[in-house]
Amino acid sequence: MSGISEPPPPQRLGLMQWLIVIVATIGFAFDTYALLTTPLIARPALAQLLPADPATKEGAEAIAHWTGYIFYASAVSGGIFGLLGGYLTDRFGRRAVLVWSILLYAFSSLACAYATSPMMLLVLRCTTFIGVCVEFVAAVAWLAELFPNPQQRERVLGFTQAFSSIGGLMVTGTYWLAEHYAPVWNEHLGHLLPGVESNNAWRWTLISGLIPALPVMLIRPFLPESPAWKEKKERGTLKRPSFGELFRPAFRTTTLVTTAMFACSFGAAFGAIQLTPQMVPGLVPEAKDIPALRKELASLPVDSAAAKTVRREIISRSQAVGQVAGSVQFCQELGGLVGRFALAWLALWIVSRRKLIQVFQIPGLLLIPLVYLFPATGKLPSGNLEVLKVGLFVAGFFTVAQFSFWGNYLPRMYPTYLRGTGESFSANVGGRMLGTTAALVSTQLAPFIPSPIGPHQLAYAAAAVVFLVYALGLILSFWLPEPKQEALPE
Fold this sequence. Notes:
This protein has helices spanning 15-49, 57-92, 94-112, 118-146, 150-189, 201-207, 213-219, 227-235, 252-271, 276-279, 290-298, 305-346, 353-373, 384-409, 419-435, 437-445, 454-477.
């Protein structure tokens, strides 16, 4: 990692550079778009594909179980194949892997719209996640090497990654449009779908996942390969990547610390923030009578007028709860967007990478657990929902910004032949495989917490988990290696 020449001055962005930035931005934005489609479409999709009646206890449980299977299987498969994708990025080049990963998750999302069974939906969501996990690694390595000037590289990586959070806002808007305009689209384009159900907004939302493939297919012939990787490949000096290399003395500390810290970043997101919509029913008056209504429905004849009335009431109340949960989630996405832009700006001014991430870790450690101990459990005298929305903005700000941090930091810690492999190990083993298990920890811990209301139990469990992972991440940050130079290692 020595012998690095002085980096060149910033390059003026021409048409080619803008095309590169546009493709990477599309990739980052639709990464999040594809990931956050699942929680939006899972309930209505499974209600039709199982089929199951979400108004009944049995139907709601069946939908919840299959939703859990989809989330778990997609996270694990994305982590495993994302790890392989990093190796392929170093072996066969950044451009090819990047483009094919975007096409994979775009066409997988399209295929999901034609799912005819829960298993088909699960498999196609797995391939979607695989494309997303591979794309992140390939895009970060590609951008880092295309912009060798340190400050320009930091700006490009920081601001393009910020569009990940915009992807979350986009998918929320798309689903809203689909819910409102699905009847019109069914009338004119319904023949394109396997069947025109009364509610197929979820299918139209999945079809929109094809959007990133369209510009990529047009732009692909004009995209250059990473000059650093291409030069070494053509000269025959590009070493073969190896996962074993990551644990050599030169890289061992970086690999272990970044993997553990990446897991902590994802642990805060999955062990608390992503579970917040499940806590909303404990704060919304419309949700309190749903269990009693379900018991009443179970005691009534299936086709009776009374059963139909109760079923409509359950669905109406569930939709009201869903709308509140969506507004809470929107605040988190907005906080994440602002946090990513803040990270991109601070990265230009704070030289120490340890201090940069600690700017987000220390306030997060102090503030985020309080969000789940008080407004999320309804402990405030009034305004719990309003305070929770502000708290979720704060949680998104400090947590999601850390994801952008890793995109800026990791390319500076590994040489060209090992850059994708190193990034993929930290992101996929640490983030996707280990970090996402925090959701399981929170949900398994919740029943043991003495609280009469289930959503409040989950909030207390989330407070404990988010405090633990933030504290561990902060402690580990003191062992985070500082980059030895601003230029990328060769």
